[in-house]
Design goal:
By secondary structure, this protein is of the alpha+beta class. The chain is about 25% helix and about 30% strand. The protein has an eight-stranded antiparallel beta sheet, covered by helices on one side. A five-stranded parallel beta sheet has the order 2-1-3-4-8, with helices on both faces.
Length: about 325
Amino acid sequence: MDPLKKAAHTAISVCMGARQDEKILIVSDTVCSKIGKALFDTALELGHEALYVEMKPMRINGEEPPALIAGLMKEFDVILLPTLRSLTHTNARREASALGKRVATFPGITEDIMIRGMSADYEKICARTIKLAGILEAGKKVRVTTEKGTDISFSIEGRKAYASKGLFREFGESGNLPTGEAFLAPMEGTSNGVFIVDGSFASVGLVDKDIRLEVKDGYVVKIEGGDKAKALDDMLKSVGPDAYSIAEFGIGTNDTAKISGVILEDEKVMGTIHIALGNNLSMGGSVNIPVHVDGVVKEPNVWIDDSLIMEKGKFVIDIG
């Protein structure tokens, strides 16, 4: 079987667990159309009633799709969204999920990432991610440090943790594909310190010069680090003050993923953490703006309360 078709087959049959009587909607854009069409062709070959819709790329991650597409998302059982910009943190996705639709988003997907990422053992990733999410949810405080100078802490007390586990087979489940991360929204206003992004940052790609972000009371107050740091700052500034809010803390659990410059894959790399800015509504937070961008930090030390769970990017607890 063609590798891209094989990956599409895994996405539909294994990860989404699509049943024969379920209708599948694929929404893509002009950048990711080859993957969108592979998913559509595979859905038809598997005997599903399917619809393929193509749009122009959104401007930034988290921007709402056209109203017509948001409406279509409420009419299908399984929704696959291979697009350049992320539709994960949109009202359109949240409203579809609330109706019980199962949604997989593939922001920034490339053929290589699709083929590599969908070859992972998602049963193992699922178990690992659920266990890690449970550890996060039981915690009250997180601290992250690195040898490069990251030292940031925040409260997670009372926050629900989410397992983007790669198997979205139940009512209303959603997440990225390829995937593998446990994540939550830090309590607004509690993040303080510095984090150094040395992997990649959504919207600017691979980091050629480390990006230093200074955080005070839940907001980034200074961004330094060259041209990509300036581009990130300019993009956030164009959205407004809440774009600088600390939105998410996540830990990668996919042992087949590698840092490629596409945040869809980068934030899933086991041995990294990511911190996102902007919208956190999907994670139980209160910030609802049309942007959500993640920065990947390599080789972190991570404490939950007083327990060290990761040292220089290696888990020091058994998560499977």
